Here is the input.
Amino acid sequence: MQHLLRSQQFSVEGLTKLYDMADRMRVTFGRKPDRQGMRTFLAGTLMHAIFYEASTRTRFSFESGAQHLGMSVVSTDNAAQFSSAVKGETLEDSIRVHAGYAPDVIVLRHPEDGAAERAAAVVDASGHACHVINAGDGRGQHPTQALLDAYTIDRHYGRIEGLTVLMGGDLANGRTVRSLAYLLGKYSEMRIIFVSPPQLAVGADILEYLDRHGVRHDQVSDMESVLPEADVVYWTRLQVERIADRGFAHEMRELQRASFTIRARHLRLLKERTIILHPFPRKGEIATEVDADPRAYYFHQAENGMYVRMALLFSLIKELPL
Amino acid sequence: MQHLLRSQQFSVEGLTKLYDMADRMRVTFGRKPDRQGMRTFLAGTLMHAIFYEASTRTRFSFESGAQHLGMSVVSTDNAAQFSSAVKGETLEDSIRVHAGYAPDVIVLRHPEDGAAERAAAVVDASGHACHVINAGDGRGQHPTQALLDAYTIDRHYGRIEGLTVLMGGDLANGRTVRSLAYLLGKYSEMRIIFVSPPQLAVGADILEYLDRHGVRHDQVSDMESVLPEADVVYWTRLQVERIADRGFAHEMRELQRASFTIRARHLRLLKERTIILHPFPRKGEIATEVDADPRAYYFHQAENGMYVRMALLFSLIKELPL
Amino acid sequence: MQHLLRSQQFSVEGLTKLYDMADRMRVTFGRKPDRQGMRTFLAGTLMHAIFYEASTRTRFSFESGAQHLGMSVVSTDNAAQFSSAVKGETLEDSIRVHAGYAPDVIVLRHPEDGAAERAAAVVDASGHACHVINAGDGRGQHPTQALLDAYTIDRHYGRIEGLTVLMGGDLANGRTVRSLAYLLGKYSEMRIIFVSPPQLAVGADILEYLDRHGVRHDQVSDMESVLPEADVVYWTRLQVERIADRGFAHEMRELQRASFTIRARHLRLLKERTIILHPFPRKGEIATEVDADPRAYYFHQAENGMYVRMALLFSLIKELPL
Here is the structure.
């Protein structure tokens, strides 16, 4: 694997290898180890973190993981506002120049669908041996988020096959939903229940993909009726910044508050082993009163993100088969 | 000491240890040493510098010190504007996620009073062994600034006890004044003279603290009358960005220009050994014509900042008693 | 050489040494080497990258080169908007404080002409052994850009002497044109043809300098008539951000589109060995249809930038004669 652009790229076998590597990363670099002197796994390699949209969480996850591995990092927070993007440069020109500075990896976040694929094409044409990782492009994909979501589920249940995943909130605008649905399609006997206001329903491309891959799926708009069925509750916030119509955004926010917010009283509807995930940031759609419940798994999930990204960086740069 | 949140946390004994360590840092990493290969004191450790308010000086001081010590750093300049703060995330969620990325230290700058304490509580609850350093929270505290101020005074006089410190300028809005006053309260036989327009007088909480700790204090509004008494002149700028009323801010600026600005002609009022300090940035409240005088000690003070912060990072991470 | 402030500082002999060092950097750190463990050339040294104007390209070029060499880096993207510059601090105060944090190099980008010289003066007065590199100051200079331009020409032709360089586009506002013209004046038997709308003609100071150094020069406004004469075509974009009058900026943009844009059909006018350079970013003034031509040399030129900057960092810090 040269670039990570879409969550569909992985085979189940490749995912298993990646998850095992993530475990190893956690054991090696996780809580309170004697880390001194161990940061040599990727010493001498360079990451460019190019974020056209700010995402402190994703950027820190990649950069912290890179630093734990001994990589060097050069990064920008807001390439769109402060860089030559203002001066009218194309993404293609920018990436071509970046590739010339001999990074081993370019981690790209961009507001346009398909940006990561365009970047990878430019890198390949340039002749530089550099890996492109899609850290979210528009409403397109956010594959490393999907990888960490799936890793979290897998490590909790010991498998992914046969689980029922409830995906709720803003299914129309969140790229994490797309990436995760595509990834879950790799596994057999899955069921996905989509729960959202009809105005924020999941895209037809996803449903088609799931049909093609034999994933059973339903769309409902009543959250409480389906909570008891879920093995995994995957909840998302309203992506107001991707909704142009402000009146509509306001209306949806009210609707989310009223009918698509997980509160303490919903916990009794869940099975005992069910886990609640959220790609973060949250804006009230899971009440903080839920946090103390052991099934509130979203902080653990966020933590997993770094180890999965470390596993990915290591596997790509060391050219391990995935 | 697990976290540095308030300047009051230190005992005089602990301060002495910290100052000695800062001396050691200066000797090891200061001007023109053969530094090559020495950056191993904290190799393999990671700092997260999370600045919700930009402060290039404080951030560079921490990050340069960290790099001299061999630490890795991941940082953000403006977490408030460009991060998930825009998307409505709470500080608590953000810090909890940061802690999961296994940094050894989080250096936090935040516009709200008490933010550092909230962050430390979240880190402790998360079970991650991570130190939180308050790099300024709202009008609350800026304890590392106070530590470097006190270190500078101590190294100049060989002691802090018994000195008369004149603190002037905007005493109502500057957190450095609060932190330093609290710290000076640790030492015996201190006298603090506060000089400011009555509208920018020092807060009642500080005066109460000083009373409780037996620090003699006065409030005056005529700068020239008290300059001759000072061993240390600690001058501050008007914190216009913390004053909501623009008319009032303008009026205060005029007043500072007229009556609370240190100029060359004031130098003859000072004792020969007196030092002039300023937490920076300055905006004219000490005229540049003062800079050439050996008593203009503020650049030396700023330089000390890095060594004190290095001493603090080293002591916290190596769990030295303070 | 203590600081790099202006392209004129170099002798031809010094340039030759720098270019040889850049070659060495490319061989050592360029495409697909086994770089692991080699990043020790400047281990233990620190760069401050202080950008008052964003320039992702220039900053990444410096920082990537520094990281390849094993340097530590602390950087800011937008010192003007987010730092104490907002609070009214002078450049002199800022740089003096930076110098105190013991960086080995300060790379400065600033919107005002002469900022780099002011910074160097402050550093020298401070007594700190720190090198200042001008990464572009206002309409003043951008000497490392000129160095990489000249290096690119030299490595293509094996010499610079005797070449005809066509410089076109916005000659009034682009600092790269100034820096390169000054540098080319070092070489004998040069000819420079300036091609631009009369309203964007090259400055009198440059023409005077060229006269003094015996460089033949012409000014024309018809691009096509002079393309066949050029050994090097150096094309630049309209610096709209430096033009206050928006109507005039619009008019110039239209003019550039109509008459000062290099398109595929112009390629047949060029000699076979001619190379087309551009300091980037471009905004349409070289059509992308030109990119596939082997004479389109601008991406190669951008790549050279990092190696030249690495050579400069290494030579300054190691105090090699230049």
